[in-house]
Write a structure and sequence with these properties.
The protein is an alpha/beta fold. The chain has five helices and five strands; from the N terminus they run βαβαβαβαβα. Strands 2-1-4-3-5 form a five-stranded parallel beta sheet.
Amino acid sequence: MRLQLLAIGTRMPSWVNEAYRDYADRLPAECRLELREIAMPKRHRSSKVEALKTREAEDLLDAVPKANWVIALDGQGKSLTTEALAEQLDKWMQSGRDVSLLVGGPDGLDAQVRQRADWSWSLSPLTFPHPLVRVVVAEQLYRAWSLLRGHPYHRGD
């Protein structure tokens, strides 16, 4: 199974890229995580937020392979424990389908992404800067995989 992280924004700070890569590289081929950055539309003082979000949504959805499960990373989504994420990851792996995880820009996801999503995942009731979401997703997916495989990385209660 391939996990595809589709994220709005390029030119992230080096610490974001390094932290993301550290966790993504730990995942084995059976659960490979690949990042695809989608350019953020140009912003101007006169730019309307809704128009920007619509453009981002179109670009994100165009990048999703047709057969993939679509997971929206969204504050309105379902919060999971590590154990529940591990169960979800196991289901994805058993399904034989690849998964696309969609991360919006600084203004969040447009409604059309939420409508297209097969499932919405909230990392926290807190609001995170969108570059940090990449790191948290990669770490949590690695943690969930390590829990499934009995790897000592996850030392939960």
